[in-house]
């Protein structure tokens, strides 16, 4: 079996859409139910100036308008809302270039940092699992995984390694891991490898974003890849 071909076909075409919509749904939840995160737990933030209030109100209005189509529809369950949002975001991501998707991801990362905390990420992760019925699984390769070969049907992306240089060209290797924590290195073609590497670099820049990826995106990708 060509592992790289199987992985590229099943997983990378889903990554951008799934990840973007989860950030969207998470940001919407934060904006509706949570106050903006404070940089200090011991001291309250200074009172906002009129200019700061105007900027925040404009940003919030824009965000709510942006997320309007992802609000639950009459008679729709939470699971159906998430599934509809995933389909919508996947279509939107497919209509954009990779560079546009990276720019969108960076913007949503800033929203995440503005409105979220580690505690609220954990709360919405638990809600998302309950809504969608995702199964518990490893969120990273285990140091001492159980014996056996990697289960490619539950393999997800842990990281992407890049070697080489601009002069000689870059080579990309994906680190995949299955639901039980077994891992494998897979050589990637230059085009898909570059996109995945750039995406993972952005994910790792924001600890909250990486938590969302491992706690919510990976289990949901498992479920969608079985459809």
Q: What topology emerges from the helices and strands here?
A:
Blueprint lengths: L2 H31 L16 H17 L11 H18 L2 H18 L2 H15 L23 E10 L3 E9 L5 E6 L1 H16 L1 H19 L2
Antiparallel strand pairs: 1-2, 2-3
Helix pairs in contact: 1-3, 1-4, 1-7, 4-6, 5-7
Kindly summarize this structure in a few lines.
The chain is mainly alpha-helical and 227 residues long. It is 59% helix and 11% strand. It starts with a helix and ends with a helix.
Can you put this structure into words, describing what you see?
By secondary structure, this protein is mostly helical. It is 59% helix and 11% strand. A hairpin with a 3-residue loop joins strand 1 (156-165) and strand 2 (169-177). It is globular and about 50 Å long. The two termini are 21 Å apart. The model has no long low-confidence stretch (mean pLDDT 79).
């Amino acid at each position: 079996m060509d592992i790289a071909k199987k992985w590229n076909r099943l997983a990378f075409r889903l990554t951008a859409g799934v990840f973007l919509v989860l950030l969207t749904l998470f940001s919407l939840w934060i904006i509706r139910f949570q106050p903006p995160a404070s940089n200090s737990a011991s001291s309250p933030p200074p009172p906002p100036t009129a200019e700061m209030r105007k900027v925040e109100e404009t940003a919030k209005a824009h965000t709510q308008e942006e997320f309007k189509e992802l609000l639950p529809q009459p008679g729709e369950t939470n699971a159906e809302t998430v599934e509809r949002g995933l389909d919508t975001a996947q279509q939107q991501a497919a209509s954009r270039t990779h560079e546009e998707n990276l720019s969108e991801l960076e913007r949503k990362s800033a929203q995440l940092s503005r409105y979220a905390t580690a505690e609220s990420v954990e709360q919405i992760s638990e809600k998302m699992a309950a809504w969608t019925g995702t199964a518990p699984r490893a969120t990273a390769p285990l140091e001492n995984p159980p014996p056996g070969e990697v289960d490619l049907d539950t393999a997800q992306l842990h990281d992407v390694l890049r070697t080489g240089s601009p002069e000689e060209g870059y080579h990309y290797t994906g680190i995949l891991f299955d639901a039980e924590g077994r891992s494998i290195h897979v050589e990637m073609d230059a085009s898909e490898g570059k996109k995945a590497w750039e995406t993972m670099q952005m994910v790792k820049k924001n600890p909250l974003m990486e938590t969302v990826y491992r706690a919510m995106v990976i289990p949901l990708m498992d479920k969608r890849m079985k459809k």
